[in-house]
Design a protein that fits this description.
The complex is a heterodimer of chains A (about 230) and B (about 220).
Chain A lengths: L11 H8 L8 H11 L7 H16 L4 H40 L3 H30 L3 H5 L4 H26 L11 H19 L4 H19 L1
Helix pairs in contact in A: 1-3, 3-4, 3-5, 4-5, 4-7, 7-8
Chain B lengths: L13 H11 L3 H14 L14 H19 L3 H45 L2 H39 L5 H22 L5 H17 L6
Helix pairs in contact in B: 1-2, 1-3, 2-3, 2-6, 3-4, 3-5, 4-5, 4-6
The chains are: A mainly alpha (about 230), B mainly alpha (about 220).
Chain lengths: ~230, ~220
């Protein structure tokens, strides 16, 4: 779906490439017309695109007219994109990779690599396969079937779990005296101060401070502070 | 490729990619540490609606290669070469990746117009050819840019470490220790859940009390 992604009509090439094997064979002008119709602008979330593509292929093979197919594609790509972005990119992915970060900071090589891959891919492949099957078997009903997933609740739960994991890794990494020894050692007050400074940094980034600027500011401050103490 | 064109299965995320690059270079533990820090920094970096955000994969390869090879070349320990590589290479490498991404998307516009002409002659076969051509171009271009960026990152980091006086090692190391909290702040800010900051603050206090007891609060 993402191959051939272009700045003009985005996923259009990938979309036709995906549905082509599912379509009834046609030839001549009808085939040309169908290809050109699907080379129009298309963009949605790559994981949910399969369900949409399968539903469109079913419509193409059935009795639906061109306008109905076009209207379905155009009206659904936005909501599918928004759902996919908020759930997969901004909720599931952060949680999966944060689990990997905790394991990486604990020095567990194999687990740090495998846990995020398994956690994320098992779930995302299951949704991809399931929505594709729903589109193929139920056509436009794929929309109501996708809406049965409780995305909003899942986003909130995964987001808060990610925040807890970040708190856990921040406190434990500093306290542990393992990977980053100068950040506090075994005294709760410096750890608490660092934890709250991180919170201030996060607020600053939320308010518009660029992450790279924060990084260089912190590093610069540390260098100046080091010179002052040496 | 995993980030832009194929599969999207987290293989290009720093926490997976850096340890694998580190393993190839014979320093898996360095890869783990780089991966953890870069992952936090790029936690919210995803392409939404066709944008080309800073490329975490390019930064991962460049920083891991630079930290490892610059350390080998100059004899400076990795605890110094790691922060030096992050500060010298992460931003330019991630921007180079973003540029490469944008170039591929623009190049694919030309491919689209060529494909539309080819469709008139050979039909759906032209689409299949366009997909293969796009994947091949994307692979070769990212491989080329990745190699150049990793080599430049190693040269720059190596030069910095070569000219760095021994007494400054500790300074760079301490700056490196501040990279983790800065990355955590960026990670926290990237969470879309609006109560995330409150949850982080509450959970931090609870975890700290669980570890240390609550006497220090008073």
């Amino acid at each position: 779906m993402q191959s051939g992604w272009n700045a003009e009509r985005m996923q259009n090439i990938g979309f036709f490439y995906t549905i082509e094997p599912l379509l009834k064979e046609e030839s001549g002008d009808e085939e040309m017309e169908r290809i050109n119709r699907h080379l129009e602008f298309f963009n949605t979330h790559p994981y949910l695109a399969g369900g949409l593509a399968a539903a469109v292929a079913r419509m193409e093979n059935g009795e639906d007219d061109e306008e109905a197919i076009r209207a379905f594609k155009q009206s659904m790509m936005g909501p599918f994109g928004a759902l996919g972005d908020s759930f997969f990119w901004f909720s599931l992915k952060p949680l999966a990779v944060l689990a990997g970060v905790v394991l990486a900071l604990s020095g567990k090589f194999l687990l740090a690599v495998l846990v995020p891959l398994i956690l994320y891919n098992v779930f995302h492949l299951w949704i991809r396969i399931r929505t594709f099957g729903d589109g193929l078997n139920h056509g436009v009903q794929v929309v109501s079937r996708i809406s049965k997933f409780k995305f909003a609740l899942a986003n909130a739960t995964l987001g808060m779990t990610s925040a807890v994991i970040i708190a856990f890794l921040m406190v434990c990494t500093i306290w542990d005296n393992g990977s980053f020894p100068e950040l506090g050692g075994h005294s709760p007050i410096p750890v608490a101060i660092t934890v709250m400074t991180v919170l201030l940094g996060a607020v600053a980034v939320k308010k518009g401070l660029r992450p790279m600027v924060l990084l260089y500011l912190v590093a610069g401050f540390s260098i100046v502070a080091s010179f002052a103490t040496i | 490729m995993d980030r832009t064109s194929v599969f999207h299965g987290l293989l290009s995320e720093p926490v997976v990619l850096c340890p694998l690059v580190g393993l190839l270079l014979g320093d898996p533990m360095l890869g783990l540490k780089v991966g953890a820090v870069l992952q936090l920094f790029f936690l919210g970096s995803s392409s939404v609606g066709g944008s080309s955000p800073p490329d975490a994969a390019m930064a991962s390869i460049a920083v891991t290669v630079a930290a490892s090879l610059a350390s080998d070349l100059t004899g400076v320990p990795v605890r110094v070469s790691f922060p030096a590589a992050v500060l010298a290479a992460m931003a330019p490498a991630s921007l180079a990746g973003s540029f490469a991404d944008g170039w591929i998307k623009e190049n694919n516009v030309k491919l689209l117009h060529e494909t539309e002409e080819a469709v008139e002659l050979v039909g759906a076969e032209a689409i299949e050819k366009a997909v293969k051509k796009s994947l091949a171009t994307s692979f070769l271009f990212f491989a080329l840019i990745g190699t150049i960026v990793a080599a430049l990152a190693t040269v720059v980091t190596g030069a910095v470490l070569y000219f760095l006086p021994h007494e400054w090692w500790k300074v760079v190391e301490m700056a490196g220790n501040m990279i983790l909290p800065a990355s955590v702040a960026v990670a926290l800010a990237s969470l879309r859940e609006r109560r995330a900051l409150w949850v982080y603050a509450g959970a931090s206090v609870c975890i700290l009390i669980a570890i240390t007891g609550w006497e220090w609060l008073f």
